[in-house]
Write a structure and sequence with these properties.
Layout: E1 17-21, H1 38-41, H2 73-85, E2 90-94, H3 104-112, E3 119-124, H4 129-139, E4 143-147, H5 153-160, H6 165-178, E5 184-189, H7 198-208, E6 211-216, H8 234-244, E7 247-250, E8 260-264, E9 270-274, E10 287-290, E11 295-297, E12 306-307, H9 309-313, H10 318-330, H11 350-353
């Protein structure tokens, strides 16, 4: 039996960061995550310049988790309290799209009152944030991250399946007004789809004083059509940014930070590059993920999940749950195996894991 005051794994890493998915549902249908049709999923299986607009499109069948399978806010609050007692101090709410979960601001308020939570953040596609931002801020949300893969309305709709660019841009402005800083904005870069917008997105970050993150395309799409040749390596992204902007490296004291960062020498904001495919950062990983239905995942690419819902709903004591968390974390994978011959894509997609 593994006993420790902290959540330590067998590789010497100590967990500090818990990502909590509150729903597996999403109101976007991003090509790289949750494509709406088989034809959209085929985007990655054909050459980009030969993609046609098929008609009619064939919808992909989805099976969402029943509401009764999702952890209640009370169960999430209890688990977070116990995890914080074991050293977790950063909490991030994710989905699917977290703002689809009714009453999310009440969960934010509950978690914000737990002693030891020093950072309470949320990742959202931003579509519903204009309606819910004020309530979330009042409830105690510290920070927010948005997804923004394109500044071109037509390309945004092509990528996400939704006409939502104006809503996301409004969300960024609202977050600034509400003082939710730093505001992080993420873009998944895919060759032939939005890599031509890298410089424009960085310019947007400079103008709005954002922390903009360029993320390599990862094999977590529900269409299971990821191709390595569509990954734009972080080094290539950096070369292009340095050719356009005067960038200064930002040194972080946090070894577990996923992004390598640079500030604009002549303006506000910064850019960062998250390169899990070409430059894995597993050696300092301090993150755990809790799925909406109560499973702990020790890596984005875990092939094994650890179900805590029976303990939470079956009368498990606080100490029994904490002991189970210790056991799970001790088994955390040393690294992922993307690009290696033995790599196997996990059953769950990004939309069902949480970012």
């Amino acid at each position: 039996m593994i006993r420790s005051n902290f959540l330590s794994d067998s590789h010497g890493r100590v967990m500090r960061d818990l990502r909590i998915s509150v729903t597996d549902r999403c109101n976007f249908r991003c090509l790289y995550c949750l494509p709406e049709t088989e034809e959209a999923a085929d985007f990655y299986r054909v050459k980009l310049d030969t993609l046609k607009n098929p008609s009619p499109a064939t919808p992909i069948a989805r099976e969402w988790k029943p509401r009764t399978h999702l952890l209640t806010f009370e169960e999430i609050e209890r688990l977070v309290r116990l995890a914080v007692e074991l050293g977790i101090d950063k909490i991030r709410l994710t989905g699917g799209e977290p703002l689809l979960r009714q009453g999310l601001e009440s969960l934010v308020a509950r978690l914000g009152l737990i002693p030891g939570v020093t950072d309470l953040a949320m990742t959202t596609n931003g579509f519903l944030f204009p309606q819910k931002g004020h309530a979330l801020r009042q409830a105690g949300l510290h920070r927010v991250s948005f997804s923004l893969d394109s500044l071109d309305p037509a390309n945004f709709k092509k990528i996400t399946g939704r006409d939502g660019l104006r809503s996301v841009l409004a969300s960024v402005d609202l977050a600034r007004e509400l003082g939710l800083r730093p505001i992080k904005v993420n873009a998944v870069v895919i060759r032939g789809l939005n890599d031509h917008e890298i410089e424009a997105l960085a310019g947007f970050a400079r103008q709005k004083e954002l922390s903009f993150r360029f993320i390599e395309f990862m094999p977590l799409d529900s269409g299971r059509a990821w191709q390595k040749e569509l990954v734009v390596p972080g080094r290539e992204i950096l070369r292009r940014l340095q050719a356009r902007f005067d960038l200064r490296p930002v040194q972080s004291p946090n070894l577990a930070e996923t992004a390598k960062r640079w500030s604009f020498a002549d303006g506000g904001g910064e850019v960062g590059i998250i390169a899990p495919v070409s430059e894995p950062f597993c050696g300092h990983c301090n993150r755990l993920r809790l799925t909406a239905d109560g499973k702990i995942r020790t890596c984005l690419f875990s092939l094994t999940e650890h179900d805590l819902r029976p303990l939470l709903r079956g009368g498990g004591s606080d100490e029994a749950i904490k002991e189970r968390l210790r056991e799970i974390v001790w088994q955390k994978e040393e690294r992922h195996h993307i690009g290696e011959p033995d790599f196997v894509q996990p059953e769950r997609t990004m939309s069902c894991i949480g970012g």
